[in-house]
Design brief:
This protein is mainly beta and about 120 residues long. About 15% of the residues lie in helices and about 40% in strands. The chain has a single domain, classed as PH-domain like. The strands form two sheets. It has a five-stranded antiparallel sheet. The N and C termini lie far apart (about 30 Å). InterPro entries: PHb (IPR012544), PHb_sf (IPR037063). This is Cytoplasmic protein.
C-alpha cells in the first residue's frame, strides 16, 4: 500500500501516460476521466474511483496500484492555485483508511475534480 503520509509522494501534473497504464484494471463500465503524473508516480481519476500508482525499484518495472473508491469518501477538500502559489491540493478522507493527500503543480482543474468527487459523495 502506498504511504500517503509521505508528503513528497505526489507532486502531480496532468499527463495521459497513467491512463494507459491502468486500462487493464478498469471494469467494463468504467472509464478514465483524467490522469496526472509526477516524476515516476501517478494518479488516475475514473468515473468510479481514484487509482494511485506507485512506481517502485530502480528500473520502475514494479508498480503498486491502490484503488480508492469514491463510495468510501466521507469528506474532501480542495485548495486551488493562486497568483504566486501555483500549486493546488486535494485532501480526501476515506472511511477506515483516513486522509489521502495529493499535490498538483501548475494549472490543475481542481473545480472539475471537486465536481467529480461531489457527484459520487453527495448522491
Amino acid at each position: 500500500m502506498i504511504d500517503f503520509n509521505n508528503k513528497g509522494f505526489f507532486k502531480l501534473k496532468q499527463n495521459t501516460e497513467y491512463s494507459e497504464r491502468v486500462t487493464a484494471l478498469l471494469l467494463d463500465d468504467e472509464h478514465v476521466v483524467d490522469s496526472y503524473k509526477s516524476m515516476r508516480d501517478g494518479v488516475v481519476f475514473t468515473n468510479k474511483r481514484i487509482i494511485a500508482v506507485n512506481v517502485q525499484g530502480l528500473t520502475g518495472s514494479k508498480k503498486d496500484f491502490t484503488s480508492l473508491p469514491y463510495k468510501n469518501i466521507v469528506a474532501y477538500s480542495i485548495e486551488t492555485s493562486g497568483t504566486f502559489d501555483l500549486d493546488s491540493e486535494l485532501e480526501v478522507y476515506f472511511s477506515a483508511l483516513g486522509k489521502v493527500r495529493f499535490e498538483f503543480t501548475g494549472r490543475t482543474a481542481m473545480v472539475e475534480i471537486s465536481r467529480l468527487i461531489a457527484g459520487h459523495v453527495l448522491k
